[in-house]
């Protein structure tokens, strides 16, 4: 087996759309993904469902896996021929220990690359309305780590404190009292503005502002902790005026993966933090295609079932011409729309007499058949593990189809299912609502596909 490759991928501060195109591609190609606690779980949507995802997360002063073990694991996986992605918050080479991992990989003869990310020292400030530089306030900036090795180089307070530029401290929350004291000791005025930004670009983002004399108390009162950025300088004065104001800011929503991309974009554009959940994987099943009577209608319950039927016909040396004269019906409006996009006209929606109904093995028994209709299952679904989803952290879930609801439900454990029962659910139609009710989800709101974002926004404004 050949040696694999390691990609150290910077994810930026956390918002999925701030990940670079190359970062997305490497995630989509990865066999194994290593990530830590600072990673936004929504970023994992870019990896393959079959990829192995390993949480090597480290808490301050409490490392789940030591750095040496992580580096050894990267080498071991690469030597086994795997394509490995090591996700790093921000940029791997900006206080991300990417340099240390690169040295170890190079010494082991492992092929590796570094995919830069937007450092939180820049993006985190922009997320709350603080420019790093401004001609009227700061012509320079410095980024300093609050964590240092016991025998590492000390911070040169005499050099940085008198600076008229912006100072940004990363990983410095445990040192906040010492930082403000040292800055004043070495010449910073006590009235210098300070901002502390927690979870920048995440749904949990919060910001507290003050000055060198008040910020420690204000942070303690607000209960802010790591991960946070500490920003010192006159640019902080602009924060209140420049802070983004979006109606869904702070709203954390769960949505189906890869469905209705425009909905995902609309929700994020309004400020929501959107976490996609995995859809079930489809697998073909053996079936016997019946001899059709002249004009016998076909009912397509979903596009995937239709695609597997086409594959079956091709394997038999036939194509869609063999279905000429058999009107196509659909069980749902969404399926009809997708078939029309493929250039296929649909005769109607429903289950006409004597129809052959084509669908998934799990779905067909739930449909109302009459004795003169025949069911053909062309594939089955395999539910994916959803147990890593922190259901209690979400403010609501969006379900665009009955299948989307079942894909999530079947992948959850009992505790998560109980949590979902108490979560507001926004459903695209009464059929989905009735299904959710059957599973005990009583807080359901029916929304229209064209106005879903506006309806969710109105709900959030009333409940926040």
From TrEMBL:
Can you give the residue ranges of the Tetrapyrrole methylase domain?
Answer: 6-215
Any one GO MF term held by the record is: uroporphyrin-III C-methyltransferase activity
Q: CDD domains, per this entry?
A: SUMT
InterPro entries to which the protein is assigned, alphabetical: 4pyrrol_Mease, 4pyrrol_Methylase_sf, 4pyrrol_syn_uPrphyn_synt_sf, 4pyrrole_Mease_sub1, 4pyrrole_Mease_sub2, CobA/CysG_C, Siro_Cobalamin_biosynth, Uropor_MeTrfase_CS
Question: Carries keyword Cytoplasm?
Answer: no
Q: Which family does it belong to?
A: Belongs to the precorrin methyltransferase family.
EC code(s) of this entry: 2.1.1.107
Some GO term, biological process aspect, for this entry: which one?
siroheme biosynthetic process
Q: What is this protein called?
A: Uroporphyrinogen-III C-methyltransferase
Q: Which UniProt keywords apply?
A: Methyltransferase, Porphyrin biosynthesis, S-adenosyl-L-methionine, Transferase
Q: Does the keyword Transferase apply?
A: yes
